[in-house]
Fold:
Amino acid sequence: MMLPAVNAGLNAVAFVLLVLGYWEIRHERIEQHRRFMLAAFATSALFLVSYLPYHAQVGSQPFTGQDPIRIVCFTVLVFHIILAALILPLAPVTLQRGLRGQDAKHRAKRAGPSLSGSTCR
Structure:
């Protein structure tokens, strides 16, 4: 079955689109940011449509690694599951706020300096 490769590809494309969208908003190119983020959201939705039925059909696969790598992998998996559950409702809300022009609610909040070296807006 090719779905794992398709899922990985969709995730990679979504990541690149998110990075490009971030780049555009940091350079105050709002329309380009909007397009990249809409494309990232659509790509992520396609990923979800592909991922969930595949894993419902295949089920869980036992992890066969041992010793320290087992602890590392399960730690990453726990955080992955928590973050995936949190982003599922947050992404559509953030998208909706952006499309409605609710900039103050849509804008990302950061606790420290941004990548460009300035503080939060």
Remarks:
- Residues 111-121 have pLDDT under 50 and may be disordered.
